[in-house]
Amino acid sequence: MPYWVEIEVANPTEIEHTFTIPKGRMISPKDLRSKVQNLVATDNTTVTVPPKGKAIVTVATECTDPSYPAPNNTIMDITTFGQKERKGNVFPGKRM
Prior knowledge:
This protein is mainly β.
């Protein structure tokens, strides 16, 4: 079942940043004991954040473990599990 995740990203620098949340990026519950599903991005999603600004990006995802309930209004973290990172990409590993 598809889910949509909204992520707010802040850019504290003086220059605009553009980055991609890659297809396959795992999104996990912040509380790992919450017993809800992890999500995985189903498409590459590119976002541009203005200098000293914020952006909200909507990411298409799918659940990864149907034996757990869906994460509804659950605080999630972007993970870097299994992903190669690109030089200059300010997004990976940042807690959302």
